[in-house]
Amino acid sequence: QVQLVESGGDLVQAGDSLRLSCEASGETFTKYHMAWFRQAPGKERDFVAAITWSGGLIYYADSVKGRFTISRDNSKNTAYLQMNNLKPEDTAVYYCAARLKYTSYSYSRQSEYNYWGQGTQVTVSS
Known about the structure:
Layout: E1 3-7, E2 11-13, E3 18-25, E4 32-39, E5 45-51, E6 58-60, E7 68-73, E8 78-83, E9 92-100, E10 115-116, E11 120-125
Parallel strand pairs: 2-11
Antiparallel strand pairs: 1-3, 3-8, 4-5, 4-9, 5-6, 7-8, 9-10, 9-11
């Protein structure tokens, strides 16, 4: 099974940018579709963005569309989330998630993903 480790979270000011990384190990990275979710204090975990195993299909939550970019480098076993023009409401713990690519799935549902990282904290001050 795949192990996922996120990094790149930080305390930033509104309008700043951050890039989160999610490094996978233990399995062939191209077997997996990847996604980012986030959980703000006192709230449920929400979908942020998803990318298929080849990078051919990408999906975003409406709240981040135009500001965030998901990508992956299969040669480095790593997925990324580039976050621009950050807002205080983006403050959350960000998690990357993976699921095997062999069946169809609903990309925005947490339950569709079998593997999760430990999360990385992003705090945006106003």
